[in-house]
Amino acid sequence: MRPHSRHRHSLHCILPPYLSREIARNGTREQRERILRTLSIDTTFRSMRVARGAMIPLGQRLIPSPMMVESQLQRTIYDMKNTEALPGTVVRTEGQGDTSDVCVNEAYNGLGATYDLFWEVFARNSIDGMGMPLHAHVHYGENYNNAFWDGERMVFGDGDGDLFNRFTIAVDIIGHELTHGVTEHDGPLTYFSQSGALNESISDVFGSLVKQRVLNQKADQADWLIGEGLFTDNVEGVALRSMKDPGTAYDDDVLGKDPQPGHMRSFVKTWEDNGGVHINSGIPNRAFYLVATQLGGYAWERAGHIWYEALRDPRLRSNAGFGSFARLTVMAAGRLYGSDKDEEKAVRDAWNQVGIRVSRERAGEPAWGPGVQLPQQAQQQPPTH
C-alpha cells in the first residue's frame, strides 16, 4: 500500500451526472424534482467529504485501528428508514441470517461477494488490505436515485420506482463502489479526465468480476453489463453501461442515449463529469473485455490478475492516462505469465483494438494519453460508433 497524500477523491456515485442531466431536461415534473433532490444530496456529501479530509492531520489519515487487522469479513448493515440522518439502525451484522428485507440481504451479500473476490482471488484483506470492516446503509432518503461510496461506507437509495429500482439490486454496483476504495488505497488515480476514467473503469472491471464470480460465469458467458436490473420497465435500456459494446446500454426518451465510446477516435472532450470520467471509461472497459474473452476461462483469473497488478504497480502515476496504464498492463502480463506469451499478446492486442498502441520502446504514454488534447471549451462532443 502506498503512502497517502492530502488528496481525497470525489464522492463516487454510481449514477453518472450526464444521465441525471438528461432526466432533469427531459423528465416529467416529478422525475425532475426527484433527480434534482438526489443531485442536491450528492453535492452536500461531496462538500462534507472535502471538509473532513481537510480537517484530518496528514499523519492520522487512513491508518487502520487494531480492530481492522483481522483476516476475516466484518459486515454491518444499517437501515436508514428513508431518512438522511446517518448512520441509521443496525439491522444485520456478520454471521446473522437473512432478514425479511431484500435490500438488507442484497447489501450484505454484495459486501461479502466483493470481499471474497479480493481475498480469495487476490489475497487482499478487505478494501484497505488490512481488514477494514464493511458498512452499508440502505433505504437512504426518499426516492433517492443513487448509491455511493464516501470513503468509509456504502449508501444505497431505494430508487423512485419510476425510472430506477432499488440500488442494491445489482451486485456489480456494490463491487464497483467498493473498488473505488481499493483504488484510493492502492492507486490513487486523480478523479479527472483520463485518470478519472481509468478510476471508473477499474471499478467497472472488478464490479463485473464480482458479478461473474457470484454467477460462476466464464468470460464468454457473461453479459458484461454494469447495473443490469437497475432500470424499471419504463426505461428503454438494459443497464448503465456495457463493457462489451460501449454506447449501447440504453437509448431512452428521458435518459437519452448512452454516450460511451469504445475507441479513442470517439474520445469525448468535455469539462462535464470531471472531464468525462463516466463517459470515456468505456474505452478501457472494452479493452479489458477483449483481453478476458481472448484469454477465455474465468475473467478474474488471468485478466483480473493483470489489471490488479497494474493498479498496484508503484510506477502508476496519479494522473496516468490510458496509454500509461495500458503499458503497465502489458508489463504486468509479461511479468506474471512470461514475455511474448498469450497473455501479453492478448493485452497488447486489446489496447490496439481500442486505439491505444503500446510499443516496446516507450515506457508509457503522456498522462492524458496518445493523441488526446484537453478540451478547449466546456462542450461535449457525442461519440461516433
Automatic annotation (TrEMBL):
Keywords: Hydrolase, Metal-binding, Metalloprotease, Protease, Secreted, Zinc. This is Neutral metalloproteinase. Signal peptide: none annotated. One of its GO terms (biological process) is proteolysis. The keyword Hydrolase applies. It comes from Pyxidicoccus fallax. Residues 362-385 are annotated as: Disordered. GO terms for molecular function: metal ion binding; metalloendopeptidase activity. Its EC number is 3.4.24.-. It is an enzyme of class 3 (hydrolase).
